[in-house]
TrEMBL record:
<protein>
    <recommendedName>
        <fullName>SPW repeat-containing integral membrane domain-containing protein</fullName>
    </recommendedName>
</protein>
<feature type="transmembrane region" description="Helical">
    <location>
        <begin position="33"/>
        <end position="52"/>
    </location>
</feature>
<dbReference type="InterPro" id="IPR005530">
    <property type="entry name" value="SPW"/>
</dbReference>
<feature type="transmembrane region" description="Helical">
    <location>
        <begin position="64"/>
        <end position="81"/>
    </location>
</feature>
<keyword id="KW-1133">Transmembrane helix</keyword>
<feature type="transmembrane region" description="Helical">
    <location>
        <begin position="87"/>
        <end position="104"/>
    </location>
</feature>
<dbReference type="Pfam" id="PF03779">
    <property type="entry name" value="SPW"/>
</dbReference>
<keyword id="KW-0812">Transmembrane</keyword>
<keyword id="KW-0472">Membrane</keyword>
<feature type="domain" description="SPW repeat-containing integral membrane">
    <location>
        <begin position="7"/>
        <end position="100"/>
    </location>
</feature>
<feature type="transmembrane region" description="Helical">
    <location>
        <begin position="7"/>
        <end position="27"/>
    </location>
</feature>
Amino acid sequence: MKKWTRWQDWTVIAAGAYAALSVLWTAQAGSSTALMVTLGALLIVGGATNLALPGLPAAEWAQAVLAVALILAPWVGGFASSMGAAWSAWIPGAAALAVTALAIKPSTEEYRHHHIVPAP
């Protein structure tokens, strides 16, 4: 797996950027601003980490947890009734989760290929 080439991680970065920046053009409620900026920024960092260091399944799983957190954020943060903010969390969160799910298996195979010593 080559560094900086996986489309899945670039998609996660774009989803994180959208979530973090969407607070600029959507009406915010509850703790939507803090949650969306924080979780969006963490998705950007996670995507960049996975681009720079491909083959780390733990990083992929952490990214999946962040995507789930973004999906749940409207209910946890009390802004599920603010449709603009809620949809701006649900859609990027779902997109990030879907592409991360597609990236977990190749990442795990890459890790096993390079880190498990074959039996003698």
